[in-house]
Amino acid sequence: MTSKRPEGGVLVVSASPHPRSRPDWLGDHLRALLAHRGHPTAHTRVRDLPATALLLADTGHRDLRAALADAEGAAGIVFVTPIYRAAYAGLLKVFLDVLPRHGLRDKAVLPVGVGGSPAHLLALDYALRPVLQAMAARHVVRGHFVHDRDLPLDGAPGAGVLAGLAVAADTLSAALVPLPAEV
């Protein structure tokens, strides 16, 4: 579920229905990279939230309420999703649906996808980005895509994958500049 609330930091949300998944690995790795850059972090795995509460949008449920509070308190959010049939995962859609309409206001957002075809890269820009922008994200940084073959479940990813993730973490980190104080 969710670890320590990242007040003013970064919440990583991974939306794979499978334990021990590539999106979870990516989420954990990005969380470590961002923590190394000095950002408080937490990781929410949507599959660990209560399914009935998610599907019924029962925001009064304790666990779902806590996950939504983590998202509200974060300055940045990383959404990590498997790409299925040229679209982001349904689990991510359900989570986005329970966030408030402008639940990403004043946040920097990094979309990350993993899929079996280079064509799936387009899902980040054509399916996910418009939703994130409609939810009033302050800045949706350039998404990052990793091909399944480059992220083995039983071994270490190559240097290219690790370098790409470091660039994605740097890009989000740079976007997490403090907002100007209201006068």
UniProtKB/TrEMBL annotation:
Q: Which residues form the NADPH-dependent FMN reductase-like domain?
A: 10-146
Name the Pfam families for this protein: FMN_red
Source domain of life is: Bacteria
InterPro entries membership: Flavoprotein-like_sf, FMN_Rdtase-like_dom, NAD(P)H-dep_FMN_reductase
Where, by residue number, does the polypeptide cross the bilayer? Answer: none
Give the record's keywords alphabetically: Flavoprotein, FMN, Oxidoreductase
Keyword Cell membrane listed = no
Q: Which GO terms describe its molecular function?
A: oxidoreductase activity
Q: Does the keyword Iron-sulfur apply?
A: no
Q: What's the protein name?
A: FMN reductase (NADPH)
Annotated source species:
Actinosynnema pretiosum
Q: What is the lineage of its organism?
A: Bacteria, Bacillati, Actinomycetota, Actinomycetes, Pseudonocardiales
